[in-house]
Structure formats: C-alpha cells, structure tokens
Write the structure tokens for this entry.
Amino acid sequence: MYVTCLDLEGVLVPEIWIAFSEATGIPELKRTTRDEPDYDKLMKFRIDILKEHGLGLKEIQDTIATIDPLPGAKEFLDELRSITQVIILSDTFTQFASPLMKKLGWPTIFCNSLEVAENGEITGFKMRCDQGKLSTVKALQSVGLDTIASGDSFNDLGMIKESQAGFLFRTTDQIKKDFPQFPAFETYDELLAAIKEQLSK
C-alpha cells in the first residue's frame, strides 16, 4: 500500500513568507527553503526580522487569511485522495496551516508549532521531530507502507530520495540541475499521471 507525501508551500499553496514579505514590504522575508537549506538558521533569521519590525503572529495570520490554494491544487488533491492515502509533510506551523487546510478540504498534515508570547510575539519554534519529512517517510516504511514523495525545495530532497518514487514539482532550475535523477514536473496533470503510473506497478 502506498502513501503519497506532499510538500505544502510551493506545491499546493503559495509560499506564506513570500506573501508576508510582499504584504509588509520587507524583502528579507522572501528567503525560503529554496534559498536556505538550513531550516533552523532560516527560522532564526525570520524571527529576528519580525522582532526588529515589531511584527507577530496576528500580522502573519492576517496575510494567510488572504491566501488561496494554487489554481488547480484542490482538484488535484481531491483526485489524488480518491486513489491513494495522502499526507502533507510541511515545515510550516499549525498556527499558519489551519486556514489553508480548510480551503484544501482538510487533508492530513504533519507540521511544526510556533512558540508565541502572550502579546503575540513569535519567540521560537518547536520542530515536530528532527528532519521531519524524512523521518516520517522512514516511519511509514517501517510499518510496511511504500511512499511516493513530491516537493520543490531543499528540505524535500530527503523524503524524495528515500521514497519508492520521488518527484520534483515546480522547483528551481538549480535543484533540477543538481538532482537530475528525479523527474521534474510543472503541472498537476503531469504529477498526477506520474503518481498513478507508480501506483499501478
């Protein structure tokens, strides 16, 4: 039995931090896991910038409320869930993800959590586990499940490499060049066809 593991941002919804960067006019917040492979370093950088500008969870949630799934994402996810189990594995946070999950029809998501002070300041973050995406894929395999994985960033490569089938989706030219062994797709139809082919094997 297969479980398909999908990244969230850049695959099903726009990048939250890029949207927040555009809403606030703070260009430094545009950095994502496509640019910085070290997630711990990236989040500490983001928290420092939020503190510097006096921004907290409420401001980010206000931006998230305006974000819709990428065109075709919900239809893709609905069809995929009709043929296989699907888990979204994301390095985002529960405080960010809920409104987006509602718009996607409440799929299963495993993500992290923010540490937030009473005044709404983001003071830190708690990772669900070390290398959450890769660890989850290995855990699924340890109980007899096969996995298919797809994502767009450095932090998706572990689960893509570890899975029985792994696909890059709307990734950067650099990642495509560095990892030519993984098929790279730009449309949901292409990705769905590749997953269906793997499921039929």
User: Anything to note?
Assistant: The two ends are 11 Å apart (CA to CA).
